[in-house]
Amino acid sequence: MTAGKFSFLHLVREPRVAHSTSPPLLLLLHGIGSNERDLFSMAPMLDGRFFVVSARAPIEMMPDAYAWFNLEFTREGGIIPNIDQAKISMKLLVSFIDELVEAYGVDPGCVYLMGFSQGAMMSLSVALTRPDKVARVVAMSGRLPEEVFANIGPLDEIKRLEIFVTHGTQDNVLPVDHGRDCRDRLKALGVPLTYNEYPMAHEVTMEALRDITAWVRSKLDAGC
Fold first, then answer.
1. Per-residue pLDDT tens for 146-173?
2. Element (H, E) at 54
3. Domain-located, residue 3
4. Residues forming a β-bridge with 27
5. Is residue 1 part of a domain?
6. What does each C-alpha distance from 130 to 19, 83, 151, 175, 188 come to in angstroms?
7. Is pTM, for the whole model, over 0.85?
8. DSSP at 2
9. Which CATH number is 56's domain given?
């Protein structure tokens, strides 16, 4: 576990493949109520060219359970996100990317964000508001917060992003309509998009992971 001068505690997996230049960065962002070990368990299956970092969200909900922002549940069954906390986490993530570039010598022009659930929301939010910091995004079982559209980055920079969205048709936490809404909004922005649905719940199945790793590999093979 690494802390020190960084905005977030995090785990690191160095590249398994030697680089003549700075390696690409893959930043993993877990979901609400989880921690940095969750997505990091996928590291052995991820492309060996990556410098992999898995970050712990800043808000402690209970021992070993963290969030990027808190949620309030109404009596009517609605969910109200803490937008101020989300904005703080987004700003910290932008700073964190810069910190990783400086500390580990990763390529600032080849930064991938991969997030699950709330981590997917953060990945999409950071990429769309600061597309200058991100090259590719994998958003798994998340949604695209409406608030992001008040602060999106320049459209010409957004259109160079490439995003892979996955969602489960049996997701009872964030129903598949959230994935389809994300798909439609990203297409409307002109973002190069791959969208896949799977017969799964709120999870990442091996079928989805195989498609994700193949997509990521193809992007790296193409030059980032």
1. 888 778 999 999 999 999 999 999 999 9
2. strand 51-55
3. no
4. 53, 113
5. no
6. 27, 17, 9, 27, 18
7. yes
8. B
9. 3.40.50.1820
